[in-house]
Amino acid sequence: xxxxxxxxxxxxxxxxxxxxxxxxxxxxxxxxxxxxxxxxxxxxxxxxxxxxxxxxxxxxxxxxxxxxxxxxxxxxxxxxxxxxxxxxxxxxxxxxxxxxxxxxxxxxxxxxxxxxxxxxxxxxxxxxxxxxxxxxxxxxxxxxxxxxxxxxxxxxxxxxxxxxxxxxxxxxxxxxxxxxxxxxxxxxxxxxxxxxxxxxxxxxxxxxxxxxxxxxxxxxxxxxxxxxxxxxxxxxxxxxxxxxxxxxxxxxxxxxxxxxxxxxxxxxxxxxxxxxxxxxxxxxxxxxxxxxxxxxxxxxxxxxxxxxxxxxxxxxxxxxxxxxxxxxxxxxxxxxxxxxxxxxxxxxxxxxxxxxxxxxxxxxxxxxxxxxxxxxxxxxxxxxxxxxxxxxxxxxxxxxxxxxxxxxxxxxxxxxxxxxxxxxxxxxxxxxxxxxxxxxxxxxxxxxxxxxxxxxxxxxxxxxxxxxxxxxxxxxxxxxxxxxxxxxxxxxxxxxxxxxxxxxxxxxxxxxxxxxxxxxxxxxxxxxxxxxxxxxxxxxxxxxxxxxxxxxxxxxxxxxxxxxxxxxxxxxxxxxxxxxxxxxxxxxxxxxxxxx
Length: 596
What we know:
nine-stranded mixed β-sheet, about 45% helix, 22 helices, Rossmann fold
């Protein structure tokens, strides 16, 4: 499948939720009828309906930005009725007067097509419900299929090179032709066309009834049962469990390289289907388990450990399943309040990057047992190149990475510089002759509209600068690739700082509230080796000059990186060894409890 989404739920046999294009084209059909009446010209009405009809016959997958009108009940049957009804009204009311018998027969045909589309859709939806296909999967062998569930087989397409919905929609061409001929005074042909359409409609509905009707003798797939069997055969020892709002998929994406590197049997469990669209880089078996029952079905006894990149309410649905040990791994390490939440008390272990994160938990003293904390490094940083001291000051054009965070869910968690300082930071770097790489947080503007507007303004500023300046793409590894290109990072308090320290390159941190330097560094230890940028940006020239020249803070960064990033050595190797150790501890607990 080309799109990462449940095929059955997406197709819905005609219940393809209306989008901007559908609404516009149906509006064009109605406008054509109005103009036809005003101009006393029925051909205008017929021509106005053609684009909507053609769109439904040739319809493909629409871009996500167009699929916005989920509450507009204007699916295929309704679109058919509106456009044909508009043409019928125009033909009936414009000269020359259409013979009543022809017009009446064609009106009945319009209603038959509408009812046939509705019946076909209803039968298809009924069968999808019987298919028991609540779960979706990728990279998992389920009855010979590596991803699914596949589309429900169309009984009409088994016999013809077109599916039932498109055939019924295409039959409307004959209906419009019949209206045109009737309006032109042709007596026999409209009747013949109408009879052909009626036969097509009856044939399609009868075929669907035999295949999908409420009677025995037709096989029903139980793909959910097959998914559970496939997972049991896989016997995963490690589960990456993920749940979040629709725009939070990036939090799983940062773990894609680690998931792919695991040699032990691993299963990625998603709770919301929307996240499949952002997991293209994950190559391991992935299952969407929407309900608690689905979740239990894909958690066989082989599962030893469950890893959680996010801290959301739905995590407790997994934690209450007995057997595995549970570990919060997060999706970044920073001085933000979310990095040491008291909610983490519910996990058996909490994995952090380095000693600095353990110190944060100890400082807030929220009742979390420090013995469950383990410094395991940041495996995602394995491909970040470490700058050598002798490479500094070589005279090349400076490249600055501006990678601010978002404004958070509430004011206390708002560390973002985008709305208040972002444009001035970028303009200052450009005026100094540097290239700027702009990598905004995916959620920028989620809470504060002014942050979204500022992001758009910065986007425009960077794109117009040209040269080596660019807006960094939102792909999973784009941030780390930008780390390797940049000479200087300008960011806010966030995990970006911690990760960038793996490069040992200079960095600057925004201090938009102008907290005194000593107090700011005490509050946010990750900034201790940074140049601090107050709201007036007076320190920006110093940060740029230091990055291009002497780099006086390099020794501080070396010490801070070790404190923040954890054990030395290849971070991926270190992390995979921690996985092995955690599984061993889970096995020991099961043995002690008498479950093995």
